[in-house]
Design a protein that fits this description.
It contains 8 helices and 10 strands. The chain is elongated and about 70 Å long.
Length: 253
């Protein structure tokens, strides 16, 4: 990512706010920065000037700037990262959903670096829904993992994943070390796996999801519920994933 810049916005639309113009100051600032992004002054992935620099440029307080940036975040134009600043969102990644859906391959093909983080893992009794997805009895033990998937440094999706035991005991540790479901499966002798089923929907982000995915609460998420099987047709993974709607473009093969 580019270093933060204190260079003021230079777009012709980015002059000091006009008082009494009938348009709120924060809206004028949001429009000016949005115009600068659209005009290429801030390319995808670049970091915007600091709130203090923008406040000085527009002659307003930081609260007004923060509201303008929040509006741009709601529109999917920027992403605010705690402690690091505000970044221009890259365009959406084409994300094919087909027999072999591989996050790392898809993101790499889009020219970005892929990685998966293990947020939490535990052995739990399978719920009725999980048991049905994995072909188990309700209450059978499964590994449940909460994961976060990134393209470069931007969170793209989060997932709650269930895997059968005892076959995949130790999978969470393998995933944490490799950052990839595919690479972790390879360590268990599963060289290939395919998608058995996929269900796609949409809903608003919860506060917890918004924090984890660096989006404003209420932003639209795409939901993808899936089941994967190994080469012998055995069910090995059930996932409930959420994708930031304007960071991916789901393509159903």
């Amino acid at each position: 990512m580019d270093e933060a810049s204190d260079t003021p916005v230079t777009s012709a639309r980015a002059g000091p706010v006009e008082r009494g113009a009938g348009l709120a100051a924060w809206r004028q600032i949001a429009d000016a920065i949005g115009g600068a992004i659209a005009g290429g002054e801030f390319p995808a992935g670049s970091q915007l000037p600091t709130e203090a620099a923008l406040a000085a440029r527009f002659g307003v307080n930081r609260h007004t700037v923060r509201r303008a940036l929040g509006t741009l975040a709601e529109r999917g134009l920027v992403r605010a990262t705690q402690g690091r600043g505000t970044f221009v969102e890259p365009g959406p990644i084409p994300y094919p959903i087909g027999p072999r859906t591989r996050f790392s391959e898809i993101v790499t093909r889009a020219g970005r670096q892929a990685w998966g983080d293990l947020v939490a893992a535990a052995t739990v009794p399978a719920s009725l829904e999980t048991a049905e997805a994995l072909g188990l009895a309700a209450g059978d033990p499964v590994i449940e993992m909460l994961t976060l998937h990134r393209a470069d440094d931007a969170p793209i999706s989060a997932a709650r994943i269930a895997l059968p035991l005892p076959r995949l005991a130790g999978f969470a540790e393998a995933y944490a070390a490799s950052g990839s479901i595919t690479r972790a499966f390879a360590g268990f002798g599963i060289a290939d796996y395919t998608r058995l089923s996929t269900r796609i929907g949409a809903r608003a982000a919860t506060a917890e999801e918004a924090s984890r995915l660096d989006v404003a609460p209420g932003r639209t998420l795409l939901t993808v519920a899936s089941v994967n099987v190994d080469a012998a047709g055995e069910r090995i993974l059930a996932a409930a994933s959420v994708f930031v709607a304007d960071r991916v473009e789901l393509v159903v093969d």
